[in-house]
From TrEMBL:
<dbReference type="InterPro" id="IPR003591">
    <property type="entry name" value="Leu-rich_rpt_typical-subtyp"/>
</dbReference>
<keyword id="KW-0433">Leucine-rich repeat</keyword>
<keyword id="KW-0677">Repeat</keyword>
<protein>
    <submittedName>
        <fullName>LRRCT domain-containing protein</fullName>
    </submittedName>
</protein>
<dbReference type="InterPro" id="IPR001611">
    <property type="entry name" value="Leu-rich_rpt"/>
</dbReference>
<dbReference type="InterPro" id="IPR032675">
    <property type="entry name" value="LRR_dom_sf"/>
</dbReference>
<dbReference type="Pfam" id="PF13855">
    <property type="entry name" value="LRR_8"/>
</dbReference>
């Protein structure tokens, strides 16, 4: 071992907080580590059962970007009394380790591993978990009750996996879940009961899947839904009243939308609720059909609908002079709000072509 490696390894009787990526040997005897230990970006492939016996009061442990494929969790984790954050990302795990000894765990990261499934009761002993991230694995299977007893979980990240379906029971146990990321998977259908067990969701990312069918009442249980990303899927149409409650953001760009009469309800809904359908840095939502609307921007149909709403409101207000000006003001104000969201620049801007 070279001198500088030896020096990096022998750090007894001091206040060690960080070790660079040259580590080959680490002696933590008689240190005063009490909160956080980072061992990222090393070549660790094995952790001895009693490796952390001298740091029982750690709250944050980072072991990302190593070569760890398995952990003898029993004796290794039993030493920890307060551990709340554990990062095992970018290693070589093929299955989720047991964390049953870590009853105070609040955050777990297992991103960028080789995990293929989430087994039943995988986190059932970690009832205080608030955040789980399993992004960029090879997960294709989620067993029923995998997330049982996670009453405090707020965010679940399953992006960049191979999940093909979310069956009933797969999301049970997370009644307080607010953020669910299923971006870049292989989902093709959303069934009616998919989200019934996670009614508190506010942010749902379903972008870059293969969705072509979304059953009518699938979003009905999600009364607090604020952000829904459906971009880059295969959606051609949506059943009437697929969305009922107001959702402030429904991203729809990069879908082959067929803007025929079956989609009239959607245009009306988007206008009435002032819904954002794409972000400034994204391509606009275009109609793929029928032929007369091919290449037409969805926002143009929304502007037409908004103008028709204004015309109807102004016409109805003529019968009551006292309320006429109020009606005109309310509808003009409504259209101005649409412009602020990016839907046109003035009342007469109605195009019938592409960009």
């Amino acid at each position: 071992m070279t001198p500088h490696l030896l020096e990096a390894g022998k750090r007894s009787h001091n206040s060690l907080v960080d070790v660079k990526n040259v580590l080959e040997l680490l002696d933590l005897s008689d240190n005063c580590l009490s909160n956080e230990l980072r061992l990222n970006n090393n070549q660790i492939n094995n952790i001895a059962p009693m490796a952390f016996m001298n740091v029982p009061l750690l709250e944050h442990l980072y072991l990302r970007s190593n070569r760890i494929s398995s952990i003898e969790t029993g004796p290794l984790f039993q030493v920890f009394k307060r551990l709340e954050v554990l990062d095992l990302s970018d290693n070589s795990f093929t299955k989720i380790p047991s964390f049953k000894e870590l009853s105070n765990l609040r955050q777990i990261r297992l991103d960028h591993n080789n995990i293929t499934q989430i087994e039943t009761l995988a986190f059932s002993s970690n009832s205080k978990l608030q955040f789980i991230s399993l992004e960029d694995n090879q997960i294709s299977s989620i067993s029923r009750n995998s997330f049982d007893s996670l009453d405090e979980l707020v965010a679940l990240n399953l992006a960049n996996n191979s999940i093909k379906t979310i069956e009933r029971g797969m999301l049970d146990g997370m009644r307080q879940l607010q953020q669910l990321n299923l971006r870049n998977n292989s989902l093709s259908v959303l069934e009616k009961l998919t989200f019934t067990s996670v009614p508190q969701i506010t942010t749902l990312d379903l972008a870059h899947n293969a969705l072509y069918k979304i059953e009518k009442d699938v979003f009905k249980p999600l009364k607090n839904l604020f952000w829904l990303d459906l971009s880059s899927n295969r959606i051609e149409t949506l059943e009437n009243n697929t969305f009922k409650d107001k959702i402030a953001n429904i991203l729809l760009n990069d879908n082959p939308l067929c803007c025929d009469e079956k989609l009239n309800w959607l245009v009306t809904y988007l206008v009435a609720n002032q819904v954002r359908t794409f972000l400034p840095y994204q391509t606009e939502v275009l109609c793929a059909g029928p032929e007369k609307y091919k290449g037409v921007r969805l926002k143009e149909l929304m502007i037409v609908e908004a103008n028709e709403t204004i015309s109807t409101g102004e016409h109805n207000s003529v019968d009551n002079d006292r309320n006429g000006d109020i009606g005109k003001f309310e509808h003009a104000s409504f259209l101005q709000k649409l412009y602020k969201l990016g839907y046109g620049s003035n009342q007469n801007e109605i195009h019938h072509g592409g960009n």
